Amino acid sequence: MSDPTIRTITVKALARVEGEGSLRVRVADGRVEIAEFSIYEPPRFFEKIVQGRAIHEVPDIVARICGICPVAYQMSGCHALEQALGITTTPGIEALRRLLYCGEWIQSHALHIHLLHAPDFLGHDSGISLATVAPELVERGLKLKALGNRIMEVVGGRAVHPINVAVGGFHRAPDPAAIRGLLPELEWGLAAGEEVVREVSRFEFPDFTRAYECVSLRGPRDYPMNHGRVVSSGGLDIDVADYEKHFQERQVPWSTALQSVMLPEEKPYLCGPIARLNLCFDQLPPRARAAFEASGIPLPITNSFQSIVARAVEIVAACEEAIRLVREQADKPITPCRIDFQPREATGCHATEAPRGILYHRYEIGSDGLVTGALIVPPTSQNQGQVEADLKDMLPAVLDDADDAVRHRCEHLIRNYDPCISCATHFLKLEIERVPAG
Q: Are strands 237-238 and 229-232 parallel, antiparallel or unpaired?
């Protein structure tokens, strides 16, 4: 006979996220004692894979970490290696890198909003199901994703794991005509992004607010992508070189994935679209800023379910930035397209803003030009502790609901973070253990 104090809910397939995970919840006397979000797939050892490899191989290797956001891994890696090698790139190279990053933001955010996250708000279990009743919405999402992919193809050589990115710049200067040819689609994308903001801001959001410690990059002028200092809503303002003094990855016994904490309090924190919007709203380009103001959602955003609005605003921002960059750069020759370098023994680090948040890389290089050590801290490991904290705070309000309702709300909350655990969709098992008090 089963123990009536134990309640188990199993989610056979946590769709619309990337990776394998399980959730264990322990409830005693109606109070949630434990909410452990466990990642149980094997580690992939990319930090070890790059060791012993030549500097020029790193961008192509780290791109394989993620099929959705390969540019983020390439950009953080290239900038970190360039910092170690003393390479200063040209304004033209930097502009093209920002354009490439805009493409990744557009395609990643469009995919998440339309196919992964919107079904939660609209009562569907998949993007395919949603397409049967809202085909225009799904088609728009696919068209926006195709726009982002096209930018990545033009600048990066291909949409998945771009091949044109190099330490020092690009292997080949993109075709100016192809860059100019992006403009009509980008102008459509800008208007489409504004429509997305209007639509998702009208969704019904669960009543769930928290005082998040938000962390993002912030530069002197532009909305953060490739560069900036690390800042937080609690007043932190540091150079990226000091990142490891203030943030630390920890192994937890219930997960194969590391979790980051903010020092010295060892507390979880939030990175990604909400954090960027809260900390860098004044740096958004004009139409993106206006789109958010028209949404009626106040700043700072304190409800993780409203991350879908922040992502939509960033689609507008990325399209707006891409239009500016295309107009400024299309007729300017990128010469040279890559800065040569000489290997030297050195260490370098850098952080960029992946679609899901800060991505930090550090590399150690030997005098022979081979990588001797690497540290890669992805956004999901930084958000994972905050996911657990959110679940622990949310569960008391829904534990009296039916199993299906509890399961759906937990899945929905996890999808707020668009977790990119291992570039695959697998399983979440949710177990709720109830024990009597005393």
A: antiparallel
Q: How many residues would you count in the chain?
A: 438
Name the residue among 380, 353, 385, 358 with its Cα closest to residue 269: 385
> Max alpha carbon distance in the chain (Å)?
75
Separation between Cα atoms, residue 238 and residue 243, nearest integer Å: 7
**Is pLDDT of 7 > 60?**
no
Q: How far is CA 424 from CA 16, 17, 21, 307, 420, in A?
A: 9, 8, 11, 21, 8
Q: What average pLDDT score do residues 141-152 get?
A: 97
Average pLDDT of the chain is 88
User: Domains in the chain, please, with CATH?
Assistant: 73-335+343-382 (1.10.645.10)
Distance CA 402, CA 406 (A): 6
Contact 358, 215 (CB under 8 A): yes
Name the one residue in this structure whose structure tokens are 């759906």: 408
43 pLDDT tier (thresholds 50, 70, 90): low
